[in-house]
Specification:
Radius of gyration: 20 Å
Order of helices and strands: EEEHHEHEHEHEEEHHHHHHHEEH
Helix content: 40-55%
Mean pLDDT: 94
Strand order of the largest sheet: 1-2-9-6-5-3-4
Shape: globular
Largest sheet: 7 strands, mixed
Number of domains: 2
Bound molecules: glycine
Strand content: 15-25%
CATH class of the largest domain: Mainly Alpha
Number of strands: 11
Length: 341
């Protein structure tokens, strides 16, 4: 079992990586209310059955204020008060929703997460971003509030569909590209065993990813600057993800490759380094090419830009393990997207 501590002005969030962590629920000082993803509940009913719980409906289309309101009502029905510990259980969707509900119900109750997917364990559950979508815009409504604990239970990953697991690897390799060349080398050497879910490799990979994200979040919790580097591959990735049937990590994998090519066009990355990005994405079993309509990708990036200012801020690689953020004005962006797709 490994531990990482995330310290912010509001306190310490304890991230624990290991097996069978769900059994710790019995040892909590107070009786929690669980907010459980419906698929997780179906698969692991016996683990959570003894506790008071509410169900979070699965699927991105349920990540809405309507679901939040329904959960508030259920919590009232269960007699929750300001001191009730809420535990969100599931992947990124469930923990984003549970964290938002816990952060706003009675102006905020204590909360923690049991993260059950690789994507959730290495990214979504860490760093305190909670929220829901609005009118098709991802995470438009939300808070930044840290859970008091995140338990990354590796024993629950075995029931993930292979495609979901691989999607999580995209966020793992992102950390190597943006922040840690040694981790990148480790992933190049151990991808085969990671794909087989070897437990010691998995524990190292989840712990290192959590440690890298923690280091970035501790320096810039509110995303004034440094935290933006975690969005490497996400500008184009989110635009690709709007296509139906593409998983987040699949879109981010391709988004990272296109961002690496853009880094090369901007003179920041050599051709052999772009190849290295492509090889690692490919070795994880993630797509490295897709039939993309450049006009549609450009329009999707423009729509997403509603959330920021005039320019699109691209996270680019300046050599491996290092980043730079470049504002790209919209008129330039169009020809860049046409070049890349
Ligand atoms: N997933 C990006 C972040 O937490 O900032």
């Amino acid at each position: 079992m490994q531990q990482v501590k995330l310290t912010t002005p509001d306190g310490v969030s304890e991230i624990v990586v290991g097996e069978l962590l769900s059994s710790r629920l019995q040892m909590l000082e107070q009786e929690p209310i669980l907010m459980i993803d419906e698929n997780v509940l179906i698969q692991h009913h016996d683990l959570f059955e003894p506790f008071r719980s509410v169900i979070i409906p699965s699927g991105e289309s349920n990540k809405t204020l309507q679901t939040v309101e329904a959960l508030y009502r259920e919590l009232v029905g269960l007699g929750a008060d300001r001191s009730t510990l809420m535990v969100g259980i599931g992947g990124g969707l469930a923990t984003d929703l549970a964290g938002f509900v816990a952060s706003t119900f009675l102006r905020g109750t204590p909360f923690g997460f049991i993260s059950t997917t690789l994507l959730g364990q290495v990214d979504a559950s860490i760093g305190g971003k909670n929220g829901v979508n609005l009118e098709g815009y991802k995470n438009m409504i939300g808070t930044i509030r840290q859970p008091s604990f995140v338990w990354c239970d590796l024993s629950l990953l075995g029931t993930l569909e292979s495609r979901e697991y691989i999607s999580g690897i995209a966020e793992v390799i992102k950390y190597g590209f943006i922040r840690d060349i040694h981790f990148l080398e480790y992933l190049e050497e151990h991808m085969e065993t990671l794909l087989k879910q070897d437990l010691s490799v998995l524990e190292h990979v989840v712990t290192t990813s959590a440690a890298i994200k923690t280091e970035v979040v501790q320096k810039d919790e509110k995303e004034a600057n440094l935290r933006k580097i975690l969005n490497f591959g996400h500008t184009i990735g989110h635009a690709i993800e709007r296509h139906k049937g593409i998983l987040h990590g699949e879109a981010v994998g391709l988004g990272m490759l296109l961002a690496a090519r853009l880094s090369h066009l901007q003179g920041l990355l050599s051709a052999s380094e772009v190849d290295r990005v492509e090889q690692l994405v490919l070795s994880a079993g993630l797509p490295v090419s897709m039939k993309l309509d450049p006009e549609e990708i450009y329009q999707n990036i423009r729509k997403d830009k509603k959330k920021s200012g005039e320019d699109v801020h691209f996270v680019l690689l300046k050599g491996m393990g290092n980043t730079i953020i470049r504002p790209i004005p919209l008129p330039e962006l169009k020809s860049i997207v046409y070049d890349l797709c």
